[in-house]
Amino acid sequence: MKNNLINNRLIWIALLLWSCTLAPAQADTKEEGVDVQEIVFSHIQDAYTWHITEWNGKEIAVSLPVLVKSEERGWDMFLSHHLHHGQTHHNYYIAAEGEHAGKVVEKNSRGEEVRPLDFSLTKNVCGLFLSCGILLFVVLRTARWYKKHPNQVPGGFTGLMEMAISYIEDGVIKESIGKEEYKPFSSYLLTVFFFILINNLIGIIPIFPGGANITGNIAVTAVLAGCTFIVVNLFATKEYWKDIFWPKVPIYLKVPLPIMPFVEFFGVFTKPFALMIRLFANIMAGHTIILALTCLIFITASMGMVVNMGMTVVSVLFCAFMNCLELLVACLQAYMFTLLSANYIGLAKVKD
Amino acid sequence: MSLLTPDSGLLFWMIVSFGIVFVILSKYGFPVIIKAVEQRKAYIDDSLETARQANEQLANIQAEGARILAEAKEKQNAILKEAFAEKEQIIDEARQKAAAETRLQVEEAARRIREEKEKAIREVRSEIADLSIAIAEKVMKEKISRDGEQQQIIDRLLDEVSLYKS
């Protein structure tokens, strides 16, 4: 069922990407086409500047620090507005095409275009810091409330937090891992849940501090899935490893060709991989759909008043609907990631 | 496709920030909240248990009170009954005593009356004898002498008279 879900999502993404490539193709036939693909991709991918809007032909953007380490020249740090519109700064520039399109590159002494070690505080990194800050503030504030009000029942936001924490703790973590062993993992899983949730929610907000596609970036989900992978395999029992390398299947499936052990061992890696792809694909797809729907308004702008008005209404309605759906997906994916992580940990704690 | 290749810079910052968030939250965040919630739960459970016990005690006390009341009522009834019986007894005794007294007095009176009557009869008899003798003397003085035969006749006559009377 899980795999089906992933497959469905992947098909969706493929369809969407395909439709995105179709749209500008149609638009290009007009004189003033909107490059939907460029808009969507520039949003979904990371950027060195946080573009907010354009006002009277002037771009309003937050210039973020670029932090690079060249193999030949060492560390360098400057603000990203030096690189706008193909400018070169300290011999660094943003590649327009090629393998490193959109990334900061430099020309080395042999005249080759190489990528330096890039620790820039990009849009996603800043968004990440922001949501981490919000998460810390929210959780620590809740914790402080409990310290100040022992044996009292909270209301309002603290109550909501308590409800969510209790729900994840009792309904997911305890159920999946077991009452005896869940304690050491509960902090990790709760952190993962709220981390994903808050990043998902902030990603939906379309105006400035929000809107960064953080959980829809594969690096972020890879770290999260990697953490789950480490936790699962670090705390696994002997029986878990025995089940992998010597599973209880007919002997001819193990000797001479270790088919089942191979499949089981492969499964160790596919599980976190599925976690990574699921979260990434869900959130990215959501952002893509909403952006594509919004772009529909500008694509139809050149098709005459009536078509444009009609499409605007349709597009706004669809966007509202998709935003509601994304709100659901944001909570659901955070829940799914936590639930599956807890399940994998529970599976690794088997005792025969 | 660049979408599927993780960027090293973002990877690094993600590891750093997620690591920091995890360390802070697993130290000062979630365990504190969970502990507080569990403590509160234990506190509420305790309070409920205490309330239940207090209720039980109250019920016990009420039952005890009712029991004591019932006992007291029973005792009161018993005392009343006893008192009533005693009263009856006293009245009975008094009545019996009075009756006995009365009987004694009546007997005494009867005895005295009888004595008086006998005495009177005796007196009357001797009086009558004296009278008769006097009468007879007078008669005899006139007609006959007084001898034994005559006296016998007189006595016999007198006995007959007294027997007749009594």
TrEMBL record, chain A:
Q: Which residues cross the membrane?
A: 121-140, 188-208, 214-237, 249-269, 275-301, 313-337
What are the coiled-coil residue ranges? none
**InterPro entries, alphabetized:** ATP_synth_F0_asu (IPR000568), ATP_synth_F0_asu_bact/mt (IPR045083), F0_ATP_A_sf (IPR035908)
Q: What is a single cellular component term in the Gene Ontology annotation?
A: proton-transporting ATP synthase complex
Tell me the membrane topology, using the record's own terms.
Answer: Multi-pass membrane protein
Signal peptide range equals 1-27
Q: Which Gene3D superfamilies does the annotation name?
A: ATP synthase, F0 complex, subunit A
Principal cellular location given in the protein's record? membrane
Q: Which domain of life is it from?
A: Bacteria
Report the Pfam families cross-referenced here.
ATP-synt_A
| Molecular function terms, GO-annotated | hydrolase activity; proton-transporting ATP synthase activity, rotational mechanism
Name where it's found.
Cell membrane; Membrane
Question: Which key words are in the record?
Answer: ATP synthesis, Cell membrane, CF(0), Hydrogen ion transport, Hydrolase, Ion transport, Membrane, Signal, Transmembrane, Transmembrane helix, Transport
For this protein, the record's HAMAP family field holds: ATP_synth_a_bact
Function summary:
Key component of the proton channel; it plays a direct role in the translocation of protons across the membrane.
Family statement = Belongs to the ATPase A chain family.
* Protein's name according to its UniProt entry: ATP synthase subunit a
Q: What is the lineage of its organism?
A: Bacteria, Pseudomonadati, Bacteroidota, Bacteroidia, Bacteroidales
Automatic annotation (TrEMBL), chain B:
Q: Which GO terms describe its molecular function?
A: hydrolase activity; proton-transporting ATP synthase activity, rotational mechanism; proton-transporting ATPase activity, rotational mechanism
Topology in the lipid bilayer is annotated as: Single-pass membrane protein
Places the protein is found: Cell membrane; Endomembrane system
Principal location: membrane
A Pfam family the protein falls into: ATP-synt_B
Coiled-coil stretches: 44-134
Kindly list the GO CC terms recorded for this protein: endomembrane system; plasma membrane; proton-transporting ATP synthase complex
What are the UniProt keywords, alphabetically?
A: ATP synthesis, Cell membrane, CF(0), Coiled coil, Hydrogen ion transport, Hydrolase, Ion transport, Membrane, Transmembrane, Transmembrane helix, Transport
| Transmembrane annotation, as ranges | 12-34
The Swiss-Prot or TrEMBL record describes its family as follows: Belongs to the ATPase B chain family.
Q: How does it assemble?
A: F-type ATPases have 2 components, F(1) - the catalytic core - and F(0) - the membrane proton channel. F(1) has five subunits: alpha(3), beta(3), gamma(1), delta(1), epsilon(1). F(0) has four main subunits: a(1), b(2) and c(10-14). The alpha and beta chains form an alternating ring which encloses part of the gamma chain. F(1) is attached to F(0) by a central stalk formed by the gamma and epsilon chains, while a peripheral stalk is formed by the delta and b chains.
Q: Which purpose does this protein serve, as stated in its record?
A: Component of the F(0) channel, it forms part of the peripheral stalk, linking F(1) to F(0). The b'-subunit is a diverged and duplicated form of b found in plants and photosynthetic bacteria.
Q: Give the protein's recorded name.
A: ATP synthase subunit b
Lineage per the UniProt record: Bacteria, Pseudomonadati, Bacteroidota, Bacteroidia, Bacteroidales
